[in-house]
Amino acid sequence: MHISSDPAFCNEEAAYRFVEARVWPDGPVCPHCRRGDRVGRLAGKEPRPGAYKCYACRKPFNVKLGTMLESTHVPLHLWLQALFLLHACEPPVSVNKLHRILGVSSRTTWLMSQRFRDRLAATTPEPGPQGGPRMTFDEEEESETEGRERTVRRPERPHRYDTTRSFGAWAAGG
Fold it and tell me: How far is it, in rounded angstroms, from Cα 92 to Cα 106?
């Protein structure tokens, strides 16, 4: 799929419809009070695209509220293009190339990619040292053993240590 062939990547209204269909499959839900029965489009002369109002708590909201897209001035269709390019390309697109493709400043694309990477790191569990799941230990032990004399190389600390620290941990019952 090419970015320019999908209207959600080119038009702001279509981008909001695209994201709303995925975030709210059963209709809009207020992120403040979690109700969806008393929600309507925000009316006015020129309403913001994708703006809703909850008549239960009387607060306005849109689909970006509570996500990494919240409080950014970058249009939603540019966010969708950036997320597509950052996620789908192997190797990932650089910030400079992204700035040339989207037509926004390199600082903006750097902030967009940082938000994406921060959110991705927050949802991905940290792997253990061998690549598997991280182990948790029930008991820990720290001891000092006689060992090779260790020199601290800073000139302001001329003394030597005559012990070496070791650390061990094991799971209970195993």
Answer: 16
Query: Are 14 and 23 in contact, with CB atoms under 8 Å apart?
Result: no
Amino acid at position 96, single letter? N
* pLDDT tens, residue order, the chain (174 aa): 556 567 777 888 888 898 889 888 988 988 888 888 888 888 777 778 888 999 989 888 888 888 888 888 899 999 998 888 888 888 878 899 999 999 999 999 999 989 888 887 877 666 555 555 554 544 444 555 565 666 666 666 555 555 555 555 556 665
The HSE-up count of residue 166 (CA atoms within 13 Å, CB side) is 8
Best CA proximity match to 61, nearest among 26, 34, 82, 81 = 34
Rounded-to-integer distance, Cα 78 and Cα 69, Å: 11
